[in-house]
Design brief:
The chain is mainly beta and 471 residues long. The protein contains six helices and 30 strands. The strands form nine sheets. Strands 4, 7, 8, 10, 11 and 13 form a six-stranded antiparallel beta sheet that branches. A six-stranded antiparallel beta sheet has the order 16-17-18-19-25-22, with no helix packed on it. Helix 2 (55-65) crosses helix 3 (69-77). The two termini are 49 Å apart. Mean pLDDT is 74; it is low at 1-23, 88-92 and 390-408.
Length: 471
């Protein structure tokens, strides 16, 4: 599709050769000669992958039966004028430790001092005591604070964002529930020094589970095991009964043994050369330790952040992508947009493009051992600790994009109404239909008596009515 001041016919032209480009031409009717143009924000959608193998034929049949019907159907699926292409990216786990905390989120470690209510900075003081450490908090989440009988006043709580920048403070009352701000990731608090810094172990700060566990004390329990900062583990972490962590192909055993099945490399660091065959230019480079494929029709266990995985035969015949060459360590890339580059310029263009590949021989490394990492309270929390050295805050090995199940959505979507206007979708007995929505041309007259009012809208049979209601 293409957005312009008027709808114009669009056609794809090209040859049957696998190495040709698909080009767009625009004319006012089918008989016009297509001209060389620059098309910005052009869309290419693979409908068969998104919805099913028959969808393209279905839209074509709609268009043949009634000109414009296929376009209308497509527009209902994609109402925005433009959808930007996103190739995704590859990420790696590189945290420094895995920490799990029980029901009580606070270790109740006090020190003499308080926090400046303007800046949040720590200030030494003999008449105040404050929490010694930052306490992780979940944004926009309610917490319950249980105070012991000896404690008569509320705690002053200070909130910080994910980078520990001070956000503000307020009073946290005794045995009360408070909801964290939308940007709150850490909290600290202080009170009168008269209570002393002896750890009484009788204050409990916990995620609010109203009706289930609020109102009882539980000691602070923490289980932390290290993740060696020199390791790069890939995948979503899974824990077996014998305390072995599985990161897809990588394993991290409780005794510190690490087995890595996959490697990762920046393609901009490889030694590229050109390979001309079948009238096209591909680029090739060896990847040390990669598991070889034996046939030109094998895909191989590789995943690239910029190029789809192809077989050697496919890149040889001009399909865009990355492939492995059979019985060698070489990977090949065919990209017609870069075909005219020199090997040096292609290498520069590949800087930052990552490749994950299966190792011919899994490697073994040694990390710090850990024990009992699976012990987490039913109402506790789990956290990956990140240091400046580790640098990565997300414990996943890749960004996964799930295809939207548009077929299921279409089964529930009613037919679009013929007339212009505003509509709402109403469901009756499992059937969806559009109901016209008439918006009043102007607001009702404002009340003349003092007070606080809110504007209320009531919809009856699809017709809204506005009224002022005193709060």
């Amino acid at each position: 599709s293409h957005e312009s001041s008027s709808w114009q016919q669009i056609a794809a032209i090209g040859t049957a050769s696998a190495s040709s480009y698909a080009r767009l031409g625009i004319g006012t009717n089918a008989d016009d000669n297509f001209k060389t143009i620059s098309v910005r924000n052009a869309h290419v959608h693979d409908l068969t992958q998104m919805i099913g193998s028959t969808i393209a034929d279905y839209i074509y049949s709609l268009e043949q039966a009634n000109a414009g019907a296929g376009v209308a159907f497509f527009r209902k699926l994609f109402p925005k004028p433009y959808y930007e292409y996103n190739a995704g990216e590859l990420l790696s786990v590189n945290a420094s430790a895995h920490k799990m905390v029980g029901f009580n989120a606070w270790d109740e470690e006090w020190e003499n001092g308080l926090y400046d209510i303007t800046t949040g900075a720590f200030v030494r003081s003999s008449d105040r005591i404050c929490s010694k450490n930052y306490i992780p908090a979940v944004p926009s989440t309610s917490y319950y604070c249980k105070m012991p009988a000896w404690y008569d006043n509320g705690i002053w709580i200070l909130e910080y964002d994910a980078d520990k920048n001070y956000l503000g403070k307020y009073s946290f009352g005794k045995n009360s529930i408070v909801t964290m701000g939308a940007d709150t990731h850490y909290i600290q608090f202080y009170t009168l020094a008269a209570y002393g810094t002896t750890y009484k172990n009788d204050i409990c700060i916990n995620l609010s589970w109203d009706g289930e566990r609020n109102g009882e004390y539980a000691p602070y329990v923490e289980h932390t095991y290290p993740l060696d900062s020199s390791l790069t583990l890939r995948g979503i972490p899974k824990l077996s009964a014998d305390n072995t962590l599985y990161y897809d192909g990588d394993t991290y055993e409780s005794d510190g043994k690490v087995t890595k099945k996959y490697g990762v490399v920046d393609l901009g660091t490889l030694n590229w050369s050109t390979a001309v065959s079948a009238g096209i230019t591909r680029f090739r480079a060896p990847v040390a330790g990669i598991k070889r494929v034996s046939l030109g029709t094998e895909l191989g266990q590789i995943l690239c952040s910029n190029y789809a995985t192809k077989t050697a035969n496919q890149t040889y015949t001009g399909q865009v992508g990355i492939s492995q060459q059979q019985n060698t360590n070489d990977v090949y890339i065919y990209d017609p947009q870069k075909e005219a580059l020199s090997a040096a310029d292609f290498k520069a263009a590949m800087s930052g493009v990552m490749l994950v590949y299966e190792l011919a021989t899994p490697t073994e490394e040694t990390a710090d051992p850990y024990q009992n990492p699976q012990i987490v309270d039913d109402f506790g929390t789990e956290e990956y600790i990140v240091t400046e050295q580790s640098g990565v805050a997300v414990p996943v090995g890749h960004e996964t994009t799930y295809q939207v199940n548009l077929r299921a959505k279409l089964e529930m979507a009613p037919e679009s109404p013929d007339g212009d206007g505003d509509y709402i979708v109403r469901q009756t007995n499992g059937e969806n239909r559009y109901v016209p929505l008439t918006i009043p041309a102007e607001l009702p007259t404002a009340p003349s008596t003092d007070g606080t009012y809110r504007l209320q809208i009531t919809v009856t049979n699809g017709t809204p009515a506005l009224s002022w209601v005193k709060s």
